[in-house]
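Hey L., structure's done. Input below.
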Amino acid sequence: MGKPDTQIDQETFNYLINNKYIESFTKDQYLALSNEVAEIEQISKNMAEERAAFQKAKNLEESYSNKIHSIRFHLEGKEKKTEEKDQFQKEIDEVNEIFKAEKTYEEQFNQLMAKKSQLSGMVPLDQVYVKITDEGKQIIHDLSLRLYRFSDEEFSNYQTEMNATIGELTNIVVSAKGYFNYLEGIVSDIEQKSTLFSTAIGLAKFKDSVESVETRFRNAYEEMGKFTKNVENRLMATEILTGSGTDISEQMRSFAEVHKEIRHKIHIPRESATAVTAITFLSRRYDGTFPLENLKTFMNITPSYESAAVMASINKPLEDTQAKFVAMKRIFSAWGYDTSEDLELSSAYVAISDLQPEEIKDKLSVIIDAIKNYLEYPLVSSTIIATVPVMEANETLDLLSKAYNIIENNVSGFEKSEIMAASVSLVHGIKKELITDVDSKAPVVNTPYNFHYMPSPFFFPFYMPMLMVQGSYFSTFSGIGGVHPAHIHSVGGFSG
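Output:
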């Protein structure tokens, strides 16, 4: 039995007790528990004796059972048969009594073993003994993953803010369930319902009224039906435009003009043009123009239309974004990945992130190794959460695990792979896990693009389009070999 290597003041002690992180025992309680545990050896001996007696009685019972079912027994007289049957019943009763006694000892033994485990976790502290609870062990585990960022924080502040993080994610999931039911009535012809749930998570991150979000979504979905018949592409474009904060039906003339230019001047096929237009449309500059020249530039370095649109929509120097994109592709190639829509899109997400390829590669490698146990194609989803700049790999995976548990406990009917994909949608975009010092009213400065921010002041202060924010990062069609639903496999794939 060890001893604490630090002193705990009474205020801290009471705080840990009240929050059920530790339990406290008096010396008398400790001694009483020790005396109980000391009985384990005798209970174990009694169990062994009862087990031996049970086996002996069971053998005798079987012997009498064989006897009364033999031909010889049927030739016996009535009195002899009665005697044998009475003896057989006696053996049965004895076996039952011994079995009950053995079970009683077994229950006592298990209870004492649990108390022994409790006793082994106790350490003396001044005049009492203390033991860390399961809740305490969990908070120690969580905190150990975050000490590199929060070692100077007050523990009570950390606890409050961590609870706020989990509470925020839980509220999003609960709200998403309502949106999911609504979307099922609007988008009835989609094969994978998990895609709808990931979309619902995106909608739930808005702090607008439910009625307002649903109206914008419905109107946008109806309008997008005029441009594409592919339901995934239509859904993706709709989700992006819902993030604009305005009713797209009032801006369809402008949208149609951008779509026409993307189709006929930049030569993006109809199957992909709608989603690319939505990304570009959401990136309207303050002067009313759109980053179409940027889109042309990035089309020269990637065959992935959506990857080009993602990079074109971000207000960063083109040369820097291009260099990061090429460098990340080089790293993926060195890891053995072939050219694909997944590789292009993952490289694009790194290119627009706050991290350099050399900074993210080790973190990304760890996350891929973990997520590939759930997803057949883990590259895009791993990259998305790896680009969260404020968390190291193990902390990121821990938060992803918590998101997974929240969804699993609140939503039914999905495969593990689908829950993991939805978890990525849920976690993606957190710039700062804890809410300290986040100014929700800070102005947007030094950007010519009219990006729309998530209204939640704590967890989602984005400067990027809703394609990244809401989790609509599946590629419905590709410039690499046509139809490419690479990220929406129902089992083993990414349905984000």
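Residues 25-131 form one domain. The chain has two domains: 25-131, 150-483.

-- N.
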